[in-house]
Specification:
The structure holds two protein chains of two kinds. By secondary structure, chain A is α+β, with helices and mostly antiparallel strands. Chain A is about 50% helix and about 15% strand. Chain A has five domains: about 50 residues; about 180 residues, no CATH class; about 210 residues, no CATH class; about 180 residues, no CATH class; about 180 residues, no CATH class. Chain A is built from 29 helices and 23 strands. In chain A, strand 8 and strand 9 form a beta hairpin. Chain B is α+β, with helices and mostly antiparallel strands. Chain B has a single domain, classed as Arc Repressor Mutant, subunit A, CATH 1.10.10.10. In chain B, strand 1 and strand 2 form a beta hairpin. In chain B, helix 2 crosses helix 3. The radius of gyration of chain B is 17 Å and the shape is elongated. Classes of the chains: A alpha+beta, B alpha+beta. The interface between A and B is medium-sized, with 21 and 19 residues. Chain B: This is Transcriptional regulator PadR-like family protein.
């Protein structure tokens, strides 16, 4: 029972006692006593363990462990470097992502009652919008006691200039009512708390400092605000405090909202749509309140257009988490985007930790001799575990320090790249640093426990023989970790490929292959079209040019809409000339484009395919419509649908007419599309600029390439795509490091097998198969797991585009090929050495 | 009086070891106690008490030489430590002081 040396005296005593009893009482009673004694002695078992003799040399200590850890790290420097690299990558990515996520959640935490700040939105036919009849908020404020404050608001981007300074710039101007300052907690620093006089405005501190060097200077100065060609002079009546940097809104110029009370009657024919913000009492049920609104309005009107709508109060939080319902006044970030980043961050950390576990385990098995000798010298499990933990902490510490350096280096760059500032106070930063370091250390400790136990439980006798034990359990764990890494990597690769495919689709839809040499020059061209056309046409560098009221890309001159009884809904109309379709590479679906010879009539118009659907009766080709000017317009052709703005929205019905149709239309011409000859484009643009300056000395020369214009609509997608690409790279690198670790391990335990097989005449091919078959199986398995998942997730993402590509099978095949190539390289790198080995080297010891 | 935390049986065992002039092993102790008290003892009871007292610091032990008698197993020999002796004498003093103070009227009853 007590087979270990320390308790042998008990065994001896029991035996002696048994013999004595046997003589005295006979066999049966002696047996009985023996059994009873045994049972009672069970309580001494823990003691027998405790008293195990320990060698004093292995009894300490921290310093020993530390010294030894450094030695062993130095000895396996290549693997430890891999470890540090993958952990550093993982930690850095994770921390950066979570800093930004944390930052996102810190938004607006200075508000006293963020739930109380709401905007009234209206849902009409399933579409939610914030434009509300200006009378409704007014009546609600009057009737509902829970509404403490109300302000209607209109925000317009105006041109701002001031006397004594010829330059102007554009800025968002908010026109609001007095309660606005209270709702959004804006404090006055100087002067009036609100622009009471119509000809006054308030400025923020920073705006005042930007314009007039200091807030004190700014008070009483005069500004000119220009909107839609109407200029108004305004005096600065007061200065309000800048919002904290973690605010999701930062008004700069506040203007008084004009008197809209004469439009407030709900039954009047004329109405003005404004957005309206409210401050609700604490604890108000905003949903119940919103449901009562139609009932409230019944007292004032019986118009169906007011009563049949659903009204909702959207809190500040909802507005800033949903770009679809936000306005330019409140910054917003999609919750889905935040979620994606959160998941990606965690996944990368997981990859790094899994990798660490794998590599350390592999390394442990390389060190069996060392463990054996330590055991022989009397080291206990505890000693071995603490030594491995010590090493882990050193590795983890180095990684954390390195990632700290990287974060400090990268953070400002990323901030400027994604145009978002970190808004952390110094106090919070210290806390974050302390917390993250603690958390990461805990993580390292947890991650190293498994290899540590493996390290310590390996059987002593086998260790000295240099044999390492392969338990099925540990194999399963390693394989599943590997499978997880592969699955995540393949998902990220499929994601990146899908993104690239969608990008290609976007480029194709916008015809960008065709437009690589096209530049768009913007300006008020108007009736000087002939002059500039004449000058430009004589330049040999220009292949073709076309004048139009618009160019695909961001909307920079408000679109014009038109609607008559013959059409279902209003549509966009644009002025183009006869070369436009040709230059943009657009084809005619039916009929004919504008004629370039004398068959061309001013009343000829074109429409796109979406517009054909928009016609109430019959097919429009060849028909005449009363549209603009005195004459009937004749539809001579149907242009294929092409996107003007983002593919995220439906292509709208559009009508294209010629400038000659009406005297007002030439004024709409604001763009010249110029196709350059591919050689020496910079010089060509310089020449065009000098010509431009001769005709329009007062207008700055603004030219941009077509692809830049298109890229501007997809800024968010492109940035996200790049970030996603980076993360994919990181994940793949980490997985490869893990693979190298796994292979090292495999080769280590199969060294003898390889040797024997080589002696028996195995070829390099068979050996490779022997070593890698499992990896390919794991790869197959992880693909099976990750592909359906990625298909689902990516389809989900693509639905945010109205026009989109498909997640197709060739993407998955490409991913597999891509991954097989990467894995193959890693495998090749590792196996090369193993196969070259001389069998006598391995077999000599046995 | 300081509490020594020695139970009655423990005291008995301790005293027995003293009587056996230290370096006693469990079976010797068992026999000695049995002889002196006319009670049958279990060897396991002796063992647990010995180890418990060793933990308390009243006893110390060492392994003896191996012999042919008991299947080559060595004996663990127990001796009383200075602390053990001191504790014993404290108990003894307390008792004897109490004995001394018992009125003779009561003691007379014992003699008769």
């Amino acid at each position: 029972m007590f087979s270990n040396t320390p308790m042998e005296e008990l065994e001896g005593d029991l035996l002696e006692d048994y013999l004595g009893n046997y003589k005295k009482y006979g066999r049966t009673r002696a047996n009985l006593y023996y059994l009873l004694d045994l049972l009672r002695l069970i309580s001494l078992i823990p003691r027998s363990r405790r008293n195990t003799q320990k060698s004093k040399t292995m009894n300490n200590l921290f310093l020993f462990n530390l010294k030894y850890s450094f030695r062993s790290i130095k000895k396996h420097s290549v693997y430890q470097a891999l470890n540090i690299a993958s952990l550093t990558l993982g930690f850095t990515c994770f921390s950066l992502i979570y800093l930004f996520v944390f930052n996102h959640y810190q938004k607006d935490n200075f508000l006293e009652n963020p739930e109380g700040i709401v905007r009234l939105n209206i849902i009409r036919d399933g579409n939610e919008s914030m434009g509300i009849h200006s009378g409704i908020p007014y009546l609600l404020k009057k009737d509902i006691p829970e509404i403490e404050r109300m302000s209607r608001m209109s925000s317009l981007v105006m041109e701002v200039s001031f006397t004594g300074n010829p330059d102007s710039f554009t800025e968002q101007v908010l026109s609001v009512e007095p309660d606005f300052m209270d709702i959004f907690q804006l404090e006055t620093v100087l002067g009036e708390p609100f622009p009471k006089e119509p000809a006054t405005v308030l400025l923020s501190e920073s705006m005042a400092a930007k314009l007039f060097s200091s807030p004190q200077e700014a008070l009483g100065k005069e500004l000119t605000l220009t909107y839609n060609k109407k200029s108004r002079k305004k005096h600065v009546a007061g200065i309000f405090r800048d919002q904290p940097i973690n605010s999701s809104y930062s008004p700069q110029i506040i203007n008084q909202l004009g008197n809209y009370d004469r439009f407030s009657g709900l039954n009047g024919g004329l109405s003005v749509s404004l957005s309206a913000y409210f401050k609700l009492q604490k604890g108000t049920d905003r949903n119940a309140l919103a449901q009562k609104i139609p009932e409230n309005l019944k007292n004032y009107t019986d118009k169906e257009s007011h009563l049949s709508n659903t009204y909702v109060f959207r809190t500040l939080n909802e507005i800033k988490n949903n770009p679809k319902i936000s306005s330019g006044f409140i910054d917003s970030l999609d919750t889905q985007t935040v979620l994606i980043f959160k998941i990606v961050g965690l996944v990368i950390l997981l990859l790094a930790v899994a990798n660490y576990v794998n590599l350390t385990t592999a390394l442990t098995l390389k060190r069996t001799h060392e463990v054996g000798i330590k055991h022989a010298m009397g080291a206990t499990k505890h000693n071995l575990i603490s030594q491995l933990l010590c090493e882990s902490f050193i590795i983890g510490g180095i990684s954390i320090l390195l990632s700290g350096v990287f974060i400090a280096f990268l953070l400002p760059r990323i901030e400027s790249y994604i145009g978002l500032q970190m808004q952390l106070t110094a106090n919070m930063q210290t806390w974050l640093i302390v917390l993250s370091i603690l958390a990461l250390f805990v993580l390292v400790a947890l991650a190293s426990l498994y290899p540590a136990f493996l390290f310590s439980t390996t059987k002593f006798s086998q260790l000295l023989k240099g044999k390492s034990e392969v338990s099925p359990k540990s194999k399963l764990l390693r394989t599943s970790l590997m499978a997880m890494q592969f699955a995540i990597s393949t998902f990220l690769i499929v994601g990146s490929l899908t993104f690239l495919k969608q990008l290609q689709f976007i480029n194709k839809s916008h015809n960008l292959d065709h437009l690589s040499n096209v530049i768009i020059v913007s300006g008020k061209i108007g009736d000087k079209k002939r002059a500039i056309e004449h000058r430009l046409a004589s330049l040999p560098e220009i292949e073709r040019l076309s004048f139009a009221s618009f160019a695909p890309g961001p909307v920079d001159y408000g679109r014009s809409g038109l609607g008559t009884d013959e059409f279902k809904e209003s549509f966009g109309f644009y002025v183009i000339d006869e070369h436009f379709l040709d230059l943009m590479g657009l084809s005619i679906a039916e009929g004919h484009g504008f004629y370039t010879d004398d068959r061309n009539k001013p009343n000829h118009v074109l429409m796109n395919q979406a517009m054909v659907e928009n016609v109430k009766e019959g097919h429009p080709l060849g028909k005449e419509f009363k549209l603009y000017g005195a004459t009937q317009s004749k539809v001579i052709g149907i242009v294929e649908n092409f996107p003007i703005g983002s593919l995220k929205s439906q292509i709208e019905p559009a009508l294209y007419m010629q400038a000659a149709l009406d005297e007002y239309l030439p004024g709409m011409i604001k763009k010249v599309a110029i196709q350059l000859k591919p050689e020496n484009r910079v010089a060509s643009i310089a020449k065009i600029e000098s010509e431009w300056n001769k005709i329009f000395p007062e207008q700055p020369f603004q030219a941009e390439f077509m692809d830049d214009r298109i890229a501007k609509i997809y800024t968010d997608e492109l940035k996200m795509g790049q970030l996603f690409g980076i993360f994919t790279g990181v994940a793949v690198v980490i997985s490869c490091l893990g693979l190298v670790g796994l292979l090292t391990y495999l080769i280590q335990i199969k060294m003898k097998e390889i040797g024997i097989r080589k002696v028996l005449g195995a070829s390099a091919g068979t050996l490779t198969k022997l070593l890698t078959l499992n990896i390919w199986k794991v790869l197959l398995l992880s693909s099976l797991i990750s592909f359906p998942l990625s298909y689902h997730l990516l389809e989900d993402w693509l639905t945010s585009f109205v026009y989109r590509t498909e997640v197709s099978s060739e993407l998955f095949i490409l991913t597999i090929l891509c991954f097989v190539l990467i894995v193959g390289l890693a495998v090749f790198w590792q196996i090369r050495n193993a196969i070259k080995i001389n069998p006598t080297e391995v077999l000599r010891n046995d | 009086m300081k509490r020594t935390g020695i139970g009655e049986f423990e005291e008995l065992v301790l005293l027995t070891i003293c009587v056996l002039e230290n370096d006693a092993y469990a079976l010797d102790i068992k026999e000695e106690v049995e002889n002196r008290t006319n009670r049958r003892m279990n060897i396991s009871a002796i063992h647990t008490t010995l180890y418990r007292m060793e933990d308390k610091g009243l006893l110390q032990s060492k392994l003896g030489e191996a012999s042919q008698v008991r299947g080559g197993k060595r004996k663990r020999l127990f001796s009383v430590t200075a602390f053990g002796l001191k504790s014993l004498s404290e108990i003894n003093e307390t008792r004897s002081r109490l004995w001394k103070d018992i009125p003779s009227s009561i003691l007379n009853a014992l003699n008769t």
